[in-house]
Amino acid sequence: MAGKEKIHQLIKVALGEAEADLAITNGSIVNVYSGEVLAGDVLIKGDRIASVGKDTGNAIGPKTRVIDAKGKTLIPGLIDGHTHIDTIYSTSELVRYAIKGGTTTIITETANIGCALGYEAVVEFLESTQDQPIKIFVTAPPMVTISPVTEEHALSVSQLRRLLRRREVIGLGEPYWGEVVNSNQRVLDLIAETIRQGKKVDGHSAGASGKKLQAYVAVGVSSCHEPITAEEVMERLRLGLFVLIREGEIRRELEAVSGLKDEGVDLSRLAISTDGLGPRHLINDGYMDFVVQKAIDLGFPPLQAIGMATINVARRFALDDVIGGIAPGKYADIVIIPDLKTIRAEYVISSGRLVAKAGEPLVLPREHDYSPSILKSVKLDRDFKAEDFAVPAAGRQVKVRLIDQVTNLVSREDFASMAVSDGQLKTDAGRDILKVAAIERSFGTGKSFVGFIKGMGFKRGAIATSAVWDCGDIIAVGADENDMAQAVNRIRELDGGIVVCAGGRVLAELALPVGGEISTEPMGSLEDKLGRIQRAAADLGCRLPDVRITLAVLTTAAIPFLRICEHGLVDLRQNKFVDLIVG
Ligand SMILES: [Fe+2]
To answer: What is the Å distance from ligand 1's center to 319 Cα?
Structure first.
């Protein structure tokens, strides 16, 4: 239907003079604008809502599909306001899980694919997210990175301008606060350009407070999804930031901040989001339906909880003219649930289409055909050998700076005295001192660096991954250099992946052929393979609860504080490279 004709038809259906395509009748309709629940019918024409209320005139006719929602509640389609879907599972696979639970809009970062492969890959990823049964909006990646190679390929202002011209690009993704406050000019220019184009700058102010937080906000950053306490949430709300409470794979904060509901403060600029959800959570718990249910179970009033995953998010991105509520003119994104306190999708309507019923998707997501440049992203021109993981050293004993992995995510600096043997430093599994290598694999530079890490627990074998944050490196950790080489070589054969090796054998693996970041497996078998990787690592002695994530964050500037890339070790406190051998 052409645009003008569509509007005329919408008017006629709203006036009760033409038949609606779909009518949802007799339901209790959550009105997110007034905070009421009102009985009535919803009339839908094409992808839009034509009217909401009791007087439907002649709009329900023989051609109208009718869903009787007597005794049921209608809520707007749920929105994940901040996530990262450019990693691990394919967009199409996520869409299957989103629609069956009532998530009809996803707003995603693109930093994983962007930092791994650069601007062209962002454009292609963006295309993979479009023409799906749900809406996916993206933020452009600022590509804040510790890797000099990635920095050379980082987003420029002119590339950003091209991205922002697209309707589905609604702003700039999270530029980490340290780089902004330290006046990284490229990042400041990206922020300024985004604001100039009338779009939003998402924030990432983990751990910032006081003057540093004020400085971050002063440049025009307008949201944050990183606060982990009610106090941090309030500090950000008071500074005018929009706050997204995180309930996802990396962290779960809802419970810790749930006391806010009793403080009598304005929570209209508060939302809930996942910041990324692993396959296990999607399979076992659900998506935003789970998150909203959890907020209700923690005592948030249902209308508040629903608002935090619908209208509040839509307003934050200036999308509330088209999504976020059940009202005329909005996209017909509606979830029918049993009652206000039970976020279980019985029917899901997305852009006027019934896309899921009783927890089963009724439509197929679009599968994207990726270009060879995305599917051939591991640019290593040779196989690796044990010698490639050698760390030369002079003398008999040296003091070495180590990454000390103190939690699944956080590392700190430690030092160890190590014996030099045949002019080299070897792994020392007895003291839990393993080798960690960062190998640039995206841009064909051949650069790599080998250091040491403790806290991982491997007694033997090795693990490697091409899916790391904020750069295009492979990270390999191991107690044995031959196994490290085999794991990297297998990733090369797979064109990206996660591989566990020991004793010359591959024990577990997952291919990530899309940019070295994303699997093409169905969610169930993906979860199965990730489980095998975790178990194989644990059998080799690994103590970490999610080794994939630990390896992935070793390269990020977002989490404190001793990190690694192809050029060496980076101390994030000083924002500079530091020596491996210190004495
Ligand atoms: Fe994030």
So the answer is: 20
Instruction: Output the CA 138–ligand 1 centroid distance in Å.
Output: 12
* DSSP output for 322-338: TSSS-STTSB--EEEES
Residue ranges of the alpha helices (H) in 259-298?
279-284, 288-297
Angle between helices 119-128 and 157-164 (to 10 degrees): 10
d(CA 301, CA 340): 10
H or E element that contains 161:
helix 157-164
111 in Cβ contact with 143 (< 8 Å): yes
Classified as helix, coil or strand, 366 is coil
Task: Give the separation between CA 486 and CA 489, rounded to whole angstroms.
Answer: 5
Asked if residues 563 and 569 have their Cβ atoms less than 8 Å apart, the reply is yes
Distance CA 121, CA 105 (A): 22
Domain boundaries, the chain: 3-71, 77-319, 374-578
Dist. CA 45–CA 63, nearest whole Å: 12
Overall fold of domain 3-71: Urease, subunit C; domain 1 (2.30.40)
Task: Please give the distance, rounded to the nearest whole angstrom, from the Cα atom of residue 149 to the centre of ligand 1.
Answer: 22
- pLDDT per residue as tens digits for the range 550-564: 999 999 999 989 999
What's at 557, amino acid-wise? A
Residue with tokens 């054969």: 493
Residue 556 tokens read as: 């990020």
How many degrees, rounded to 5, is the angle at CA 206 between CA 202 and CA 207? 145
User: What's the pLDDT tens digit per position in 476-509?
Assistant: 999 999 999 999 999 999 999 999 999 999 999 9
At 249 the pLDDT is 87
| Ligand 1 center from residue 82 Cα (angstroms) | 6
| Ligand 1 midpoint to CA 173 (Å) | 8
The CATH architecture that domain 77-319 belongs to is: Alpha-Beta Barrel (3.20)
Indicate the angle between helix axes 91-101 and 288-297, nearest 10 degrees.
40
The Cβ of residue 566 has, within 10 Å, a number of other Cβ atoms equal to 25
pLDDT per position as a tens digit, 330-361: 999 999 999 999 999 999 999 999 999 999 99
